[in-house]
Amino acid sequence: MSSSTVTARRLSAAALAAAAIVGAVALPASAADHARPDRTKVEISAVQYDSPGRDDRSRRSLNKEWVELTNTSRRTVNLDGWTLKNEDGDTYTFDHYRLEGRATVRIHTGRGHDTDSDLYMDRHNEVWDNYSDTATLRNDHDRFVDDESWGRHHRGHGGRHHGGGHHH
Ligand SMILES: [Ca+2]
Ligand SMILES: [Ca+2]
């Protein structure tokens, strides 16, 4: 195999996955190009797209619909200006929020008071489709960071992502 394969192995799995999804990120042409292995590592770690129980658009129901982001690095990441978007283009923009190293934040759909561990979109309608949707996270330069799909878009990597929903 060529030397680019060796270089590729040094990239983290996350970086490779991101590169595969955007499809536009070129791997280093030579070993002289650094692979920048220490990029910020914030990922969508969980999605509860189907709020448990009846979806009645109440604040309580909307806030049981959420997305969690985890900072897998040790360093605090400033999420100011980052966006979280659904397939319809409904967008939540982070406002002066800093996610500490190894920390997880839950972004609820409904109204509420933001804390270090919980943020609220203040929406009056659900944002994540129960059947099929994609949550996409982009940074303040509108660059792809991570996404998570479910339903018919599911890319088939093992178990299903049923947001804690139980069938009755
Ligand atoms: Ca939903
Ligand atoms: Ca439900």
Brief rundown of the structure:
The protein is an alpha+beta fold. It contains 3 helices and 10 strands.
Radius of gyration: 17 Å
Please tally the β strands and state the result: 10
> Low-confidence parts lasting 5 or more residues at pLDDT below 50?
1-10, 21-38, 157-168
Distance between the termini: 52 Å
What is the oligomeric state here?
single chain
Output the number of helix runs: 3
Strand content: 25-35%
CATH hierarchy class name of the largest domain:
Mainly Beta
User: Could you name the CATH homologous superfamily of the largest domain?
Assistant: Lamin Tail domain
Lateral strand order in the biggest sheet: 1-2-7-8
Order of helices and strands: HHEHEEEEEEEEE
Structural class: alpha+beta
Report helical residue fraction. Answer: 10-25%
Largest sheet composition: 4 strands, mixed
Describe this structure in words.
With 168 residues, the protein is α+β, with helices and mostly antiparallel strands. The protein has two domains: 1-30, no CATH class; 41-153, Immunoglobulin-like (Sandwich), CATH 2.60.40.1260. The protein has three helices and ten strands, in the order H-H-E-H-E-E-E-E-E-E-E-E-E. Strand 9 and strand 10 form a beta hairpin. One calcium ion binds at residues 49-51, 65, 126, 128, 130.
